Amino acid sequence: MAANAGNKIRNAKVVLLGDVGAGKSSLVLRFVKGQFVEFQESTIGAAFFSQTLAVSDETVKFEIWDTAGQERYHSLAPMYYRGAAAAIVVYDISNQASFIRAKKWVQELQAQGNPNTVVALAGNKADLLETRQVQIEEAKTYAQENGLFFMETSAKTATNVNDIFYEIAKRLLQGQPAQNPQAGMVLSQRPNERVVSSASCCS
Amino acid sequence: MDPGPNPTPDDKGLAALSLRAPAALPPDFAAVPEIEDEEEEEDDDEGYFTAASRGGSSSTAAWKEEMEGLEEEEEEEDGPPSPSSSGYAGERGSSLASSAAGGAGIEEPDHHDVDAPQPHGPGAEDWARDKKHADEDDASASWRKRKKHFFILSNSGKPIYSRYGDEHKLAGFSATLQAIVSFVENSADHIKFVRAGKHQIVFLVKGPIYLVCISCTEESYEGLRGQLELMYGQMLLILTKSVNRCFEKNPKFDMAPLLGGTDAVFLSLIRAFSWNPATFLHAYTCLPLAQATRRAASAVLQDIADSGVLFALLMCEHKVISLVGAQKATLHPDDILLLANFILSSESFRTSESFSPICLPRYNPMAFLYAYVHFFDENTYLTLLTTRPDAFYDLKDSRARIQDVLLKANVLLEVQRSLHENALRVEDVPVELSSQSTSLPAQSSQGNSQSLSSEMAIGGPAGLWHFIYKSIYLDQYVSSEFASPIRNPKQQKRLYKAYQKFYASMHDKASGPHRTQFRRDEDYVLFCWITQDFELYAAFNPLADKTQAIKICNRVCQWIRDLENEIFVYGESTLAWQYHHCWGDI
């Protein structure tokens, strides 16, 4: 995943949203550190991570905001999703309520987020087949109707975890025009943090 | 002035408070015999059932909506039960609380409670292990036998937090507590505490939020009340006082979901009540460091503070390495305690850099600050507090600069070394005054041979086992390591309980404050000495000679003064404290 010398590096802010216990932190820790713990503690506020991913001849440097799912932090979410290049809305396939919560996040993103934001829907804990409450078809249909891309993931088994970030990277490099870094963005006001990216395509 | 070691005032004042009818309060509460040993073990040493147990249920209206005043969905009403029986209790409690105030704090010091064999030390991973026993409720025998309960509830009787058991299942019990409070308030009075047999039920009313402690640990009313104040402060740190507005809009507002995922924070605070002297001294403690090392850390923090950070704190576990505040901003020791407790008990802060809204209740209970938290290693962490919600990247840069300086100046290495080596040991108290400013072990016991039996030789001179010294101007304290006779955590916890009682009796508003107190019981000789500048609490072997003990206390004070540049933080902000030393009550 290391960037090669000649690569263009594109920074991309990604935010994870979703209900308490859906597995946002677990997904991030799996992706960033390759780790998984069975009893992940609640996130406080928001945790910041970064990780780079090479896609063809380009490198995407993800700046990942893992937000807390707790209700009291809900009001902070716009600070993180505004100006995000991508959002991953996470639910737990064994918890119907978390899917309902995920839909609310999607609505909020559609209403208040940046229309250019790539939104991914992640049905996490895909290893918990026996206690599944959210059918894959249901989620797929919902994702199609709302223009999201969808994957079932498992932070525990690492299934689709890198893939979902890879897919985001690809989409960012493909279709998305350069983000307007100042559009309603609160957290990235540091000018030098934003590398102006070329809109060139890959693969 | 000696408020006296005799146990009688307690009987006079408090006996009348006893509720003879067990039905008068939570049914059977007083009638249940205590589980002795294992119970107290559980008191502090339990498995993890922490965040997850309260996390899942929060699909109600969002915090934001609450704060912005959207309609809250209608809640089922919890009808308060008939206050007939509990009202009786409340009335008695309130009418007698004031007369008992003089007696509280000098309760007789018998210890049949057995303490936990859990190491108290700041091993953060242990704290989160307290079990909540979410399967219990007030009908469970095990729940009723627990030695110390803490409850937070709303003034409509809705449970917000319970140390043990599932809050949802405790709705009836919470309603009972609420009824007690409101019964007394209906007669234009305020309930302070109720005594029911061995149990003491302490109430603290904070606007729409009630905090209750039910305990049979024989701690003083003042001590328990202080603990409730800290519980409230911890809650404010997470939510701010503006949560009150939710109750103005909807008296039946269900606040419990807003505290989702914070069980570990409260449990670790409750544990701190039995090992961390900061919880009753209202002072913080520093990591001993060479002056130059601390200066290097302070200088770089000061630079950062000058560039728009409100407070910058570098801490190692619960000990302050350095702290600075922006101009005129001062940090209260209780806020330091609550902030450190919050950070250390939330595993999430250790996994990456975090940015989280927190409130410092003594600084401004109404407003959130934003905390950038970063752990440099297992136990050393930097907290930068700002009022700017968009400051993350700036603070991240600041952290990098601070980290550079700390590495270059070897501060982080020195911190690790100090953590293991620089503790104050009672064995090192200089016996000869001529040996001032050295910290060599005091092997010269011959000097005091008349008071040093072979047993006395264990520990420091004259049988000194432990001491705590609090500098009043600095709001800082230092405490020694525990000497071998109190090496085990059970004994340490017991000593802290004795100190807490001692503290309460020294600061008793009715009969005090007092200057000195000397008390001997079967466990120790305790000596306390309060002057304008400091408070000293010392524990000696129970056979220690009084004159010798007092002499040694003088030497301890001299020794502390000799070491003060290494064991206390002197900064610009601490200077500000000296001149604006005017902390009010909460």
TrEMBL record, chain A:
Q: Which InterPro entries match?
A: P-loop_NTPase, Small_GTP-bd, Small_GTPase
Membrane disposition? Lipid-anchor
Task: Please state the protein's primary subcellular location.
Answer: membrane
One GO biological process term: intracellular protein transport
Query: Where does the record say this protein resides?
Result: Endomembrane system
What Pfam families has UniProt attached to this entry? Ras
GO cellular component term of the entry, any: endomembrane system
Q: PROSITE patterns given for it?
A: RAB (PS51419), RAS (PS51421), RHO (PS51420)
Q: Does DNA damage count among this protein's keywords?
A: no
Q: MF terms per GO, please?
A: GTP binding; GTPase activity
Query: Hey, what's the signal peptide range on this chain?
Result: none
- Record keywords, A-Z: GTP-binding, Lipoprotein, Membrane, Nucleotide-binding, Prenylation, Protein transport, Transport
Family statement: Belongs to the small GTPase superfamily. Rab family.
Q: What is this protein called?
A: Uncharacterized protein
Q: Which organism is it from?
A: Brachypodium distachyon
Automatic annotation (TrEMBL), chain B:
Per the entry, what this protein does is:
Plays an important role in membrane trafficking through the secretory apparatus.
Q: What is a biological process (GO) this protein takes part in?
A: protein targeting to vacuole
Composition bias (Basic and acidic residues) maps to: 126-135
What PANTHER family does its record include?
A: SAND PROTEIN-RELATED (PTHR13027), VACUOLAR FUSION PROTEIN MON1 HOMOLOG (PTHR13027:SF7)
- Bias-annotated ranges (Acidic residues): 34-47, 68-79
Domain (FUZ/MON1/HPS1 first Longin) spans: 148-266
Concerning Pfam families, the annotation shows:
Fuz_longin_1 (PF19036), Fuz_longin_2 (PF19037), Fuz_longin_3 (PF19038)
The UniProt entry, under InterPro entries, shows: FUZ/MON1/HPS1_longin_1 (IPR043972), FUZ/MON1/HPS1_longin_2 (IPR043971), FUZ/MON1/HPS1_longin_3 (IPR043970), Mon1 (IPR004353)
Identify the domain of life: Eukaryota
Spell out the protein name for this chain. Answer: Vacuolar fusion protein MON1 homolog
Which parts of the sequence belong to the FUZ/MON1/HPS1 third Longin domain? 463-562
Give residue ranges for domain FUZ/MON1/HPS1 second Longin. 308-402
Spell out the residue ranges making up region: Disordered: 1-140, 435-454
